[in-house]
Design goal:
Layout lengths: L1 H9 L1 H15 L4 H22 L20 H17 L2 H30 L1 H8 L11 H6 L2 H21 L2
């Protein structure tokens, strides 16, 4: 099972691009659905940015920022972004694709990453994950968020919004 999760986690980005193309093809956005969906997606991206600004990916865990509330705020933010894109697209098929993609790809990635963190940090990681939130507060850093690659997620969301807006404008 761990190997399947690792395999899915490795292909989640190209799979996401494929789902994005399907979304663009199947979307029937209106200006109203676009406004609602983009607002929701922007909220999700804000969660992701907040999380990325508190995390030193692959080097240590943190209980700072949104990590006080959930162990995986980047993926929570991704789920909210996905819901926003589904709303913006105004397509039930796109909503189903989003739920399936997020459920399978994000679920597998979480399992894979937790397995890797346990292997890398051992008992310290297990204790960290089960301990109550607290500890030293790390300040948010936009530079840290960008080092963690969050600018790519922002650019991807911007591209999706622009393409859906063009589809709405051109009535494709």
């Amino acid at each position: 099972m761990a190997e399947i999760a690792r395999s899915i986690a490795r292909v989640r980005v190209p799979l996401g691009f494929g789902c994005g193309l399907a979304t663009l093809w199947l979307a029937h956005p209106t200006w109203a659905s676009l406004a609602s969906g983009v607002s929701l997606a922007a909220t999700g991206e804000s969660i992701r940015l907040w999380a990325a600004g508190h995390l030193e990916k692959g080097r240590e865990g943190t209980r700072s920022g949104p990590y006080r509330f959930t162990g995986h705020p980047l993926y929570l933010g991704s789920a909210v972004v996905g819901a926003g894109i589904a709303v913006a697209s105004r397509s039930l098929i796109v909503a189903v694709i989003a739920v399936l993609y997020l459920g399978i790809a994000v679920g597998a990635t979480v399992r894979s990453e937790e397995t890797e963190m346990r292997a890398k940090f051992g008992r310290d990681y297990v204790e960290f994950r089960t301990a109550p939130a607290g500890g030293a507060e790390r300040r948010f850093s936009l530079a840290r968020a960008f080092r963690n690659g969050e600018h790519r997620a922002i650019a991807g969301l911007a591209a999706a919004v622009i393409l859906l807006a063009l589809k709405t404008w051109l009535r494709l």
